[in-house]
Amino acid sequence: MPDIRIRDAALLLGVSDDTVRRWVDTGLLRAHKNESGRLVVDGAELAELAVEQARPPLTRLGSASSARNRFPGLVTRVVADTVMAQVEMQCGPFTVVSLMSSEAVRELGLRPGSIAVASVKATNVVVETAAESGGGE
Asked: Residues near 76 by Cβ (< 8 Å), separated by ≥ 6?
């Protein structure tokens, strides 16, 4: 499995380096030194921790959706004309941009500072890896 540096693990999980080090110190995550002497964590173990640490977004009671990719966040920008609107949200470390009708923006009451959940359901998702990963094994 790939070894991931503490700094990179923190970036991937959206936490500080110190948080990852605390997880190592408390035994929540195991770390070891790589051949360069740097503290690293196992990529598969980090992925398991990421899934365990994930919390489902809060939704209104009674709401249901088939979308599994749900990103709670804050609306940061709304640009609307008479027909269409662009809504930008900050969902943790990610920016999500949605194009929708201006009518939908008005009905949902979307404006900067609104709390919302971006739900993504797509049949095409592009997955990329770092160039140094060596390809698919």
From this structure: 88, 89, 90, 95, 112
pLDDT tens, N- to C-terminus, the chain (137 residues): 588 999 988 888 888 999 999 999 999 999 999 999 999 999 888 888 887 776 655 555 456 666 678 888 888 999 999 999 999 998 877 889 999 999 999 999 999 888 888 888 877 878 888 766 544 44
Classify residue 40: in a domain, yes or no: yes
Structurally, the chain folds into a number of domains equal to: 2
pTM (two decimals): 0.58
Residues spanned by the domain of 86: 69-120
Q: State whether 73 and 49 are in the same domain.
A: no
Q: How distant, in Å, are the alpha carbons of 23, 68, 92 from that of 71? A: 24, 9, 8
Among 82, 84, 76, which Cα is nearest to 118's? 76
Contact at 8 Å (CB) between 58 and 72?
yes
